[in-house]
Amino acid sequence: MKKLLLALILTLTTINAQASLLIDPYIGTGLMKTTYDLGSLDDDSDNLTAVGARVGYQFLLLSAGIDYSKGSGGDFNFTNTSVFVGVDLPILLRAWAEYFLASSLDSDSSALRNADFEFKDGVSLGIGFTALPFVSLNLEVQNINYETEVSGVEFDFETAAYIFSVSLPLNL
Questions:
Q1: What is the Cα–Cα distance from 72 to 79, expressed in whole angstroms?
Q2: Class of the 18-171 domain?
Q3: What's CA 51's distance to the chain center, in Å?
Q4: φ, ψ (nearest 5 deg) of residue 10
Q5: How far is CA 4 from CA 8, 9, 122, in A?
Q6: Do residues 59 and 33 lie in contact, with contact meaning Cβ atoms separated by under 8 Å?
Q7: Is the pTM of this model over 0.70?
Q8: Which of 26, 94, 118, 137 could form a disulfide with 165 if both were Cys (CB 3.0 to 4.6 A apart)?
């Protein structure tokens, strides 16, 4: 009986679930392409900068949570909120997918200054390289769609972004 109890105690104390709080702040730069569904406005490409954080829960190889980011690209300033699901592969790679819940977009350009951008939907895919201690080098592709109205004319507006970022994934 004592041997069985000792074996049970040793087994229970050596099991480690690896469940933890995930905090992943990041900063990045990249390219944002804007596409208008209106003939009088030209499509545009600009550099962008972004800063944000993913906060969630990680269990073994899987993670899930909320991503919040702010940034600017060309004449546009944006704020995005999304949910993410990710996987940390044991081969120094991680990948995730995001679904945007909300996004606000403001424009400084004279043609779109009075535009009201109404968020429709958006998705993002990302991959990260985690070989460096405490640092992840990430590449992310985002696609966000809006409906816009300027001077009584409604049209669709799409942003596609390619973001290279550096993050600090912390498991607490």
A1: 9
A2: mainly beta
A3: 10
A4: -65, -40
A5: 6, 9, 55
A6: no
A7: yes
A8: 26
